[in-house]
Amino acid sequence: MKQGSISIVGAGPGDPELITVKALRRIQTADVILYDRLVNEELLAYGRKEALRIYCGKAPGQHSMPQEGIERLMIKHASAGSHVVRLKGGDPFVFGRGGEEALASAAAGIPYEVIPGITSAIGAAASAGIPLTHRGLAASFAIVTGSRCHDHAAPVRWDALAHSVDTLVIYMGVSHLGGIREQLLKHGKDAATPVALIENGTTARERTVTGTLGNIDKLATAMKISNPALIIIGEAVKVREQLLALENAARSQIG
Ligand code: SAH
């Protein structure tokens, strides 16, 4: 029997062109593709006609397939000799439970590999014109979960983050914006710190709104920002405003 394998693959942040060549090649040769909600479905068209495509997405607050079920399915198909591609939004090791899937593959003795993807922080920041580091404005950034239920054993250290990191990129945070704002203000972050919210980053439906730490939850509600969205907090957000102002000035000169 053919030896099966598992590729844990990052699909990139949303724009289907932002996938790696290696990831695309694995999709093209897969027997089984297990894909998540945030994967751009256009990418599935690159798979072989006869490849089995299985949706494993979890809508927020709902669990269409429990994590253990996904891991069992992945191992079942690979054990039967299939090449399984576990396709995940962004990068598999950034809030993607890719680590757990790698552990499950290794424990089952199945050959596996992990193919990185552009995580949504990197993709969305580029698309919105926000350099996560910028000379004179930001020398460090951190990727943080805003979801309190994400990991009770390792709570987010808002106290340390408020002081020691220049740009904060918060995943899964839009529905907890009030709490995040409170935490950061409590630990001394300036209410005037620039903030951006990016919804559906890198896709045709991308929307970005900017404000300050002090007013961002009201802005998010007013603009009806919903998932998937990222929060970027820090002085580097100002570069977006500078870029837009320069682009407008250049346009009005030409016009
Ligand atoms: N592994 C993924 C993250 C999964 S967690 C990655 O590396 O990007 C899911 C969270 O990612 C969402 O709640 C949202 O905060 C963020 N996210 C994913 N895709 C996004 C997109 N296109 N635009 C904005 N945020 C996105």
From TrEMBL:
PROSITE patterns named in the record: SUMT_1
Signal peptide start-end: none
InterPro entries registered for this protein in UniProt: 4pyrrol_Mease, 4pyrrol_Methylase_sf, 4pyrrole_Mease_sub1, 4pyrrole_Mease_sub2, CobA/CysG_C, Siro_Cobalamin_biosynth, Uropor_MeTrfase_CS
Class of enzymatic activity (EC top level): transferase
UniProt keyword annotations, A-Z: Methyltransferase, Porphyrin biosynthesis, S-adenosyl-L-methionine, Transferase
EC assignment: 2.1.1.107
One Pfam entry name: TP_methylase
Residue ranges of domain Tetrapyrrole methylase in the record: 6-216
Keyword S-adenosyl-L-methionine attributed: yes
PANTHER family in UniProt: S-ADENOSYL-L-METHIONINE-DEPENDENT UROPORPHYRINOGEN III METHYLTRANSFERASE, CHLOROPLASTIC, SIROHEME SYNTHASE-RELATED
Protein name: uroporphyrinogen-III C-methyltransferase
UniProt source species: Paenibacillus borealis
